Every structure is written in C-alpha cells, then in structure tokens.
Amino acid sequence: MEIDFLDQTNQVSKKQIDTLEKLFDYAAQCEQVQKNTELSVSFVNNEEIQELNKVYRKKDEPTDVISFALQDGEEDHLKFTESEEPVILGDIIISIDKVEEQAKEYNHSFDRELGFLAVHGFLHLLGYDHMNESEEKVMFQKQNDILDGFGLERK
Q: N or C: which end of the chain has fewer CB within 10 A?
C-alpha cells in the first residue's frame, strides 16, 4: 500500500509514522485490501480540522479525525478485486491536538490514540460507518480486532 503522510504540526515522529505505516498494512491485510492501494494521511491542529469540519460536515467544532473517501462501495464496505490499476481510497485527516487530549482523557498512550484514529479513518475509507447501533457495533469491533491484533491494546 502506498501512503502519503503530511505532518503540518511537526509533532509526529519518524518512528510513529513507521508504526502507522505497518498498522495500515496490517489493517489492509485484515480487510483484504489489494496491495496497489493508495491513501494520504495528514496531521493537523484543532484549528485546521475545525475549519474542515465546518466546511464539509457543517459542524463548527474541532473533531479528532475526518475521512474523505474517493471510492464508493456497493454494499456496506468496499470489495476488492486484484487489478493492475491503483485504487486511491482517499484522505484521512487527524488532529494531533485531539490525539493528545483524548489520550489523556482515556488514560492511554499517545501512540494508542493515534493508531485508533488512523484505523477509524481507514475503516471509513473502506465504507464502514457508525450511523446506527448495528453499524457501530461492526465498525468498533473491527477497530478493536485490528488494534489488538497489531499490539496497540488499551493499557
């Protein structure tokens, strides 16, 4: 998988980006995403994500992660068939300010929260959502399975 990382905050270390790259690869294997898939991940501050949230979701407040999917699944989530053409999933934007706030609030590490938000955004790109209780149950179970399987468990 090809991932383009952009850290507008200069707060995400090379080691953290390497870990996220491995986490995305693991999540892609779990979800049977084809190898020639592309996505971008941007790290921003609360002001930037609030502006995106206001423009695209009509919510004038900062949020933790926003995903912009470029593919639409015909069912609940995308189905992949091997092809030589790359599949561009879309963009994930993560607020590093929110990562710090929520890591403290939930009493776990910055890396765990960053990984959680990355997987959450990735699953949205694949078509998963949590608009109702049954969707939420499926998506959150997948998140937990991926994070636990990768070794980013809650501590």
A: C
CA dist 120 and 68 (Å) reads: 12
Say which residue, 116 or 83, is predicted with more confidence: 116
Compute the distance between CA of residue 141 and CA of residue 139 in angstroms, rounded to an integer: 5
Considering the segment(s) 2-150 as one domain, its CATH architecture is 3-Layer(aba) Sandwich (3.40)
Q: 46 vs 70, which has greater pLDDT?
A: 46
What does the pLDDT read at residue 102?
97
**CA angle at 47 for the pair 42 and 50, rounded to the nearest 5°:** 80
* pLDDT tens column, 8-17: 999 999 999 9
φ, ψ of residue 127 to 5 degrees: the values are 105, 0
User: From CA 94, how far away is CA 145, in angstroms rounded?
Assistant: 21
Q: Specify the pLDDT at position 81.
A: 54
